[in-house]
Amino acid sequence: MTDNPNHEIEIRIDREQVPYRAALEEMTARNAAIAEGTGRELIWLLEHPPVYTAGTSAAADELLDPRFEVVEAGRGGRYTYHGPGQRVGYVLLDLKKRARDVRGFVHALEGWVIATLGDFGVESWRAEGRIGIWTRDIDGREAKIGAIGVRIRRWVTMHGFSVNLAPDLSHFGGIVPCGIEEFGVTSLERLGVTLDFAAWDRALLARMGEFLAQLDRPCPKD
Known about the structure:
Blueprint: E1 2-4, E2 9-13, H1 20-36, E3 42-46, E4 51-54, E5 70-72, E6 79-82, E7 86-92, H2 102-119, E8 124-127, E9 130-136, E10 142-153, E11 156-164, E12 184-185, H3 197-206, H4 208-214
Parallel strand pairs: 2-3, 4-5, 10-12
Antiparallel strand pairs: 1-2, 3-7, 4-6, 7-11, 8-9, 9-10, 10-11
Helix pairs in contact: 2-4
């Protein structure tokens, strides 16, 4: 665990897998504590054992093969898979201290992931009408490489993003990821980029200041 003295945000990095339910319980408690002024803001980087999580818009027919535990996450969005080889980032920030702009927060979060992927030579982007982070797969088609899902309670954020470094991509076959059937899922490993969590975390945190600065500006119009 390390701290960022410039922003008084706790940076937590877990080396061992954290069960999703345990993470959700801890995240919910921290979210409430931040809102009450008794807890520090938190950026938490971790990995989960295999799990399918259901957002508030999840449709029953998009759960194709519940081979892993299914947990109602309470975040926005639909079904998402988390598992080994995927880096998850939970971002718990008090937007009362920043611009109270939900869309701006999501835009900044997406930009943080996109910029970090670019540091490893992977071009990625937002796609109109499709949630998540997209790139060009080895077959030339667009594919999702990262997921975004957030919840905001009393102007404090929770949940965040996941990025596919080297997960078992067949595990995504148990769901319709984020409700989008016509596009596939890819990973850095599939694109020929070998990257461990430590290298990803360093690159991501090196850009944290840029991400936080975006939260004080109006969301750009796409």
